[in-house]
Amino acid sequence: MRQGQTLLANFDWILFGIYLVFLAMGLATVYSTAYNEDHPNIYDFSQKYGKQLIWISISLFLGLIVFLIESDVYRKFCIPIYLFTLILLVIVLFMPAVNGARAWLGIGSLGIQPAEFSKIGAALLLAHFISNVNVKQQTINTVLTANAIILVPMVLILLQPDAGTFVVFTSFLFVMYREGITYDPLVLRLVNAIPGVRFKHTWVGSHFIPILFIIVFLSLITLLMSNESITFQIAPDTPVNGIWIIILSLAIFAVLGYFVLRFLSAKRDRNRVLIIILIGFLLTAGWSTIVNFGFKGLADHQKDRIELFLGLKEDPDGEDYNRNRAMAAVGSGGMLGKGYQNASVSSVESNHVPESETDFIFCPFAEEWGFIGSLALIFLYLFLLIRIIIIAERQRATFNRVYAYAVAMIFFYHFAINIGMNIGFAPVIGIPLPFFSYGGSSLMSFSIMLFILLKLDSQRRDILQ
Amino acid sequence: MNVDARKYVLIAFVILVGIIYSFRLFYMQVVDDSWALRAQQIAEKRREITPPRGVIYDRDGKKIVTNKTYYNLMVVESNMKDFDTVAFAKLIGWTPAQVTNRFKEIREGEGVYKNKRTGKTTPNYQKFKPYPFLKELTLEEVMHIAPRLEEFSGFYEDATSMRSYPFANAANIVGYLSEVNQEEIDKDKFYRPGNNIGRAGLERYYEKELRGRKGIKYIVTSALNNAIEPYAGGKFDTTALQGDALHLGVDIELQAYGEKLLKNKRGCIVAIEPETGEILALVSSPTYDPNLLIGKRNVSKYYGLMAKDESKPLFPRPLAAEYPPGSTFKLINSLIGLQEGVITKNSGFACDKSVVGCHNHASAGNLADAIKHSCNPYFYAVTRRIIQQKEKKKLTEDAEIGLNLWAKYMHSFGLGKKLETDITGIRPGLIPDALYYDKWYGHYNWAFSTIRSISIGQGEVMLTPLQIANIGAIIANKGWYITPHFVKSIGKNGPLERFTKKNSTMVDTKHFEIIIEGMRRVVYESGGTGKRALLKDIVICGKTGTVQNPHGEDHSVFLAFAPMDKPKIAIAVFIENAKGGGGLWAAPTASLMIEKYINGKVTETEREETILNAKFSY
Question: I need a surface site. Which of A88, A446, B519, B565 has the fewest CB within 10 A?
């Protein structure tokens, strides 16, 4: 009895509340998007909204089961769980391909995507591994083992192929970064091989992952924006190219960032902040410029290949493409949106935006609720992510913290890439928006992931480790 | 750096992405309109609904131009399933090979699209778009096909409105429609490719009134181009408004009768109600069945044939053919003579065949008899007095003053200038003035003797049959006319304003009495040239004309109005290359028309028979 009381007393109702809000919003959006006049009832299980309702029920039920399982089980059985998801990833490679990918286990709408569940396995095993490592004395082996844990499922997922989930697995790098597992040992091995050089740490090796993230993110945005231009009302005849928009934005962020950091840091550090911001700005702006003009300088067929990869082009002959349609749908929402059930571009019936109930679900939402709705959704996601990070930071057990960060970073990736896809900031790789997109596998795996976290968190005081 | 502080890096990333996305969304959704425009292009279609054109009614309210619903059999290839070519061919009465060919024709007929950037060409044909498989089917045809159409998925019928001419007459009046060309589309925003526009006749002249107002529907469409729902609940839609009805002065039965009488002849009949200027009939022969020029299919098939036809069925003779008026012109010369005081009704001139040829008759001792006999030397003398009024000593200088005065009179009769009738393709005819002859002969190098043919309506004088008929109306009105016109009311708004105004001639009313008496004698007195126009119960006043022309037999002309005391109809009949004078063919034809119009039936069946059987080779 007493244990049950502490369980509920330590239960994070806020996180659970956000989860329920997302489920409701997601279901409402699926209902609006996939609405079928002949089957107006939301309980009509022949329709996607009816099915989503089933998936929600199953997910809540699974969540309850997960919650009832002793949290020690996840610690003890993380290796079998991880291996089980790997086996599923292998089996799925022998299944018939759907839409060109061997991603589905089972038949028709009852199928599941093992890739979704493999994230849980990897998260648990990584947490287990890191909690048993002395980070201060990490070796090349530690780094390589941690990387191998995520690399094995990544390779299997790439074989399906499922580019989206593949990319999402790189979110574990952030978790490793947070825990101090960096590429520093590798970099040191290389650097110290030079005679007469003897470093204890390298800045690049330690912060390799966020630097890589910034480089990739910046490069992507630069490439995706390279064909865009904005015209300002004060100078209607001079369109401003994508690269200038980026440099301008970077400058604005630099100035804002300076004032924020100046406010946060001690007086004696202010000069240092200015220098760091200045160097940061010059490096990022310089990199964007290099990427932009480097891309423009490429031969046409190379350009085509990159554009194809980024989803800027669906096929070389098509003048129109998904991304453009999705952006049109989002952009046409305006300030207040077209109103619930009034999405004209992105409803399933009109079919201008393919997959508008799954990967592109942000489209109908943004079209119907406009900027106000989109902003609210983004804030809700930020709230969710920061809440999970707060939960992560309050864990006593390293295992719990690593797992919580894994959840946060996976959600962050899904959020950033999925919405980025809809606003032209990310290549079109099909990954769902957590709790929002229609689909059983993603909803179930996200729910299980979240409920494991809730369980670990509610028992955080029991663990002294 | 403390490892624990790295959490701030992660939080910073999360917040940074959130902020960047918020800015981007604000820009895309609120600041930049181009995405909203793109969405409109993609999903919101503006569909125009072309209203049916205005209906055209005749004098008695009979529909002479109306609209009929036709059907196109549309096909969407992507919706076709298990298509049975043989069964379908049987249904539409084709051979399977024809069906296959038609599909090929549709696919290839859409042309190819060339991508400017890649240079690749792809067919413009799209599987999910509807194309007409069969065009312009009638209700009867579609009734046969429609019930079984559900066996052939992908096919459906689509209604379009097209013109229909229940009487198959008056083609030269109503004109026809055909598809707009690019120039017209550029000039007038109303038109879209595939729309029709009036090409001739009233359809062209009253195009703006007849075409109505287009309705606009904004709809949300799917990627397959299917309509899903009205945009914004139909808030911005406007309804289509049918064009105004045109109520004509034309009596369609009289028109049809006139067309029947002129069958196998070249010529025209123009009948006008003198009091109102309304055109009762305007027959051009040979003519064509207006139903032959309905729809794209027919226009492309028949228009070329008709345009090439040597007998010129498309040529509106009464409006555009300029003929010498012949003896009918003598009436105007007489009126001018009277007004100028150079003759009186009792003036007599000898029939002196040495100046100009004439037929055998007693010399006319007065104007009325001269008209009755159509005495050439008499009117030669009359016109000489008009032209040579001895204002100047020199004959040529005197002739110039006289001719210009004469021409001014003529213009006041609506001759030598375009009548402002509500139809296109009107010609002015020719009334020569001093300037005209100066060009031919040189300044002061001509006198009346040079130009004397004008006195008997030959030579340079040219009039259109419409103008000749209008002379009849002027005489019936004793000195004024309302511009002849077709439309007596546009919708309920009455005619155009200019058709309510009387135009006065320069001749006083009192001078018309004797002319009218002369015209009565033409028909009713022995020796009259137009006795074949005689009707028992209606007094006809007429004037014959026999127009010499270098191309063959004389043209037979008759100008008349009736009844004498309360004229209801003025008429001009012009039969080309008839063997015989105006009295022989044109006069009886005019009388039949008059009887038909005033009595509603024709009793002179023998006369009718003769005219119907007459056939003049050309």
Answer: B565
